[in-house]
Design a protein that fits this description.
mainly alpha, membrane, 3-stranded antiparallel β-sheet, about 425 residues, single chain, transmembrane, MetI-like fold, cell membrane, 2 domains
Amino acid sequence: MKAYFLRRLLLIPLTLLGITALVFAINRMAPGGPVERSIAALMGGDGGKRSRMESGPTITASQVLDVEEKKNREKSLGRAYGEWLGIFPRDTQKIGREFPKGATEVEIPIPGTIHLVKAIRQGDRAELKAEAGVDISEWAVRLRSPAEQVRHWNKWMGGMSLQSEPEYRAVLYKPAFDGLLQGSLGASEKYQDPVGLMILERMPVSLYFGLASVLVIYGVCVPLGILKAIKHRTFLDNASSAAIFAGFAIPGYALGSLLVVVLGAKWGWFPIRGFTGDDFDTLSAADKVKDIFNHTFMPLVCYLIGSFAFMTMLAKNNLMDNLAADYVRTAAAKGVSYPAAVFRHALRNSIIPIATTFGDNIALLVAGSMLVEKVFDIDGFGLLQFSAVVERDEPVMLGVLFVAAALTALGKVISDLCVALVDPRVSYK
């Protein structure tokens, strides 16, 4: 069994590599990215391409390359993904300048300082020269040829001709290994904050909803499913089934919208947004607990509405199948009481399918529900995913994807372990 779980754990990095590489490639190749939006803004909006072609482009090839560099889109797909992984050094800071026409030198300001550095072109290479006392040991320079700039122009401005031939361009950059292998998820393109810190700041909110959901699902749904199996076809079973399936038919975000309008805005029973109130820091411990409950009651109902029905019926149906099995009838024929037949014989086998879903709930602890958090304006992990997708913030998208995928893969291994602990027939040899 140890060898099996060791193999499963060793497969997790390969799984994460495939998932992140696929999403990275799709995000880079999808139209409407940050480069297109920035170029459209430089050209005066998003008007039709035909009108721009008739009047001629209003930007130069150097400006297009400058946009690419600012959005970290100037490198090949494989190189960019390698930098995100930390296999290759990435440009932690960079700034580019075009050489004056016919010149072989250009001055470039060093980011974060008041100093200038001079880039001197020698053929297809360039070297840096700084004033005395200015340390440029961490900086490097790369040269962009006119032909290379034309290729980048055609990539983003296909069908439009250049008004003038571009000059050489020098890019001053500071390289460093700063990727996943170094424990870094990069920085948000929109907010410039470290992605890892953005995720950690939202963990308490997601952990609260995740733990509360898991406790309710297993603390209420499993006993209710057992009770429904024992009381099959009674009023209790029929009434609870009607309520459960009515809730299951309503999407969580749709129920959230209804609760916000009725219980929040119309009746004023609960706050309609946020995880805590504006005066949370000034409240006593008891009032803080009350404030969190008031703010999270409606979102928690929306979190549970779908999983509640699934887990309850799973527990009921599995227990009913085992109660109808031959070994239970044999135990009853030998004089075993009905409660003993249920709880000592049938229940343990009924827990096996439930154990297979336990690991899947690990991801629920932080993944949250992006639509529910959007409805209630709760700044958790789910809303962070939603915002990253809408804003096409690549580092944040990959960061939350990596965390969610890692927890899901780990949850699958935990599910197998739970099954092995519950079912003695499983050995995984």
